[in-house]
């Protein structure tokens, strides 16, 4: 435990700061850390690469991706789904083969018992004579065999005696140790899911995005190095993570939600293309995060086992 003198305190209680320090060093207890601005994705960055998009597209849920990155992600996911499906089909085939073998063994056992019971009915004298000639098994009583015929012996309770020797495993003998069966695979999902929202991704649902740069003279390479890169084409407000934004399907531009509420929703007409808008044509973009806890979660949490002192 941490010493009080080392932490410049003469308190007789175990302080909160000391408890956090000891929990971090011991490996027990939940750890929490506040995320900095460098850990927050910008609103115009790809949700996969976390880099500014060169060819941005948006999903119906408002998540922005780089077209090249999301297509590559979908191809990889389809290959992974196909691989998992093959493993699942192979597992089902093995299970069917095992079930067929067990069924055949059960039928053979039924035939054997039927043959023993109904095949021939020996007389009492023949049965007694055959019982005397049978070899003596370990832990079982055989009438008239050996010096132990005067005493009755009973079936052994050992799990390594008689037929149980091959049926039960042994921890101490590696050759007899049982192995754990592999966990059964569930049928894999064949649809490609969004890595952020968990919903189905479809290539035909992607919509191109046209950001309005602050300086129209900037080329595509220089604009990525600027802090304030894009603005609303209607109000000319700078677009940042602290600015709620919306995507217009008709003109494929990004505007502020304030512009949508105060200007666009009055007449429901796109101010860029002049087309008639519907509610489904306005998609609110998902922001990467801000430095304010009231807007986004800025705390990272790592859950670890709790150490209870008794």
From TrEMBL:
Q: Which InterPro entries match?
A: NOSIP, Znf-NOSIP, Znf_RING/FYVE/PHD
Subcellular location, principal? nucleus
Is Nucleus among the key words of this record? yes
| Annotated GO CC locations | nucleus
* UniProt xrefs under Pfam families: zf-NOSIP (PF15906)
- Region (Disordered) residue spans: 94-158
Give the Polar residues compositional bias ranges. 147-158
Biased composition range(s): Basic and acidic residues = 94-116
A single GO molecular function term of this UniProt record: ubiquitin protein ligase activity
Q: Where in the cell is it found?
A: Nucleus
Q: Which SUPFAM superfamilies match?
A: RING/U-box
User: Ranges for the Nitric oxide synthase-interacting protein zinc-finger domain?
Assistant: 4-78
Report the Gene3D superfamilies cross-referenced here: Zinc/RING finger domain, C3HC4 (zinc finger)
Which UniProt keywords are listed?
A: Nucleus
Instruction: Tell me yes or no: is Lyase among this UniProt entry's keywords.
Output: no
Q: Of which family is this protein a member?
A: Belongs to the NOSIP family.
Q: What is this protein called?
A: Nitric oxide synthase-interacting protein homolog
Q: Which organism is it from?
A: Steinernema hermaphroditum
């Amino acid at each position: 435990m941490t010493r009080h003198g080392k932490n410049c305190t003469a308190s007789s209680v175990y302080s909160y700061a000391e408890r956090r320090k000891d929990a971090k060093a011991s490996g027990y207890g939940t750890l929490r850390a506040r995320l900095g601005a460098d850990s927050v994705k910008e609103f115009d960055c790809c949700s996969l690469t976390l880099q500014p998009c060169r060819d941005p597209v948006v999903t119906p849920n408002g998540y922005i991706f780089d077209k090249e990155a999301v297509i590559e992600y979908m191809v990889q996911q389809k290959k992974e789904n196909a691989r998992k499906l093959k493993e699942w089909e192979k597992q089902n085939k093995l299970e069917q083969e095992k079930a067929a073998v067990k069924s055949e063994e059960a039928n053979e056992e039924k035939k054997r018992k039927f043959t023993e019971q109904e095949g021939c009915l020996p007389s009492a004298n023949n049965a007694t004579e055959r019982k005397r000639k049978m070899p003596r098994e370990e832990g079982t009583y055989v009438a008239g065999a050996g010096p132990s015929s005067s005493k009755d012996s009973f079936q052994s309770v050992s799990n390594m005696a008689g037929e149980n020797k091959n049926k039960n495993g042994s921890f101490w003998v590696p050759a007899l140790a049982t192995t754990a069966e592999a966990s059964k695979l569930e049928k894999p999902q064949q649809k490609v899911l969004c890595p952020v929202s968990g919903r189905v991704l479809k290539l035909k649902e992607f919509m191109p995005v046209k950001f309005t740069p602050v300086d129209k003279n900037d080329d595509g390479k220089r604009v990525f190095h600027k802090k304030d890169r894009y603005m609303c084409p209607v109000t000319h407000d700078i677009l940042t993570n602290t600015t709620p934004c919306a995507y217009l399907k008709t003109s494929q531009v990004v505007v502020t939600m304030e512009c949508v509420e105060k200007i666009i929703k009055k007449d429901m007409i796109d101010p860029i293309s002049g087309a008639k808008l519907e509610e489904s044509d306005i998609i609110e973009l998902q922001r990467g995060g801000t430095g304010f806890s009231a807007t986004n979660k800025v705390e990272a949490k790592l859950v670890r086992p709790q150490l209870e002192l008794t």
